[in-house]
Amino acid sequence: MKKEALSNTGAIGSVAGIAACPLCVPFFTSLLASFGLGALIPFWQPIVGVFFAIALYGFISAFRIHRQVSPLLLLIIGGALLWMGRYIVGEDLVWIAGAIFMTVAIFLNHRAGKNPHCKK
């Protein structure tokens, strides 16, 4: 039961983070500056890449258990759209689409993990 509660908390937290994504750049910029870590702002792009790599590792680990490829593909597509929308194209609609893809990926991954036929 405790493991399921942690899993639910993680999924809800992930979706909340993606939903708040339009606020994340100004929020974290001011948060880092308020803690005296404004020097990290130019390195935000690699930091986001590291966080995406951690998420990708988690989804690959989950894929090995439930063998459903759709959450993993949606995460990769969503991450690419977020990255392109924020750092390459600079278009809000592109990274909002990426956030939607990633939100759906989180829900599908969570649901696939709850499947009774899942090899845990």
Description:
There is one protein chain. The protein has 120 residues and is mainly alpha-helical. It has one domain (2-113). Helices cover 81% and strands 0% of the residues. The chain has five helices and no strands. Helix 4 (69-88) packs antiparallel against helix 5 (92-113).
How are helices and strands ordered from N to C?
HHHHH
Number of domains: 1
Oligomer: single chain
Would you count the extended β strands for me? 0
Output the radius of gyration.
Answer: 16 Å
**SS field, number of helical segments:** 5
End-to-end gap: 15 Å
**Sequence stretches where pLDDT stays below 50 over 5 or more residues:** none
What structural class is derived from the secondary structure elements?
mainly alpha
The main sheet comes to: none
- Helix fraction, binned, reads over 70%
Give the rounded overall mean pLDDT.
Answer: 78
Question: Rough shape?
Answer: elongated
Percentage of residues in DSSP E strands = under 5%
Short description:
This protein is 81% helix and 0% strand. It is an all-alpha fold.
How are the SSEs placed, and which strands pair?
Blueprint: H1 2-19, H2 21-34, H3 44-66, H4 69-88, H5 92-113
Helix pairs in contact: 1-5, 3-4, 4-5
Features:
120 residues; mainly alpha
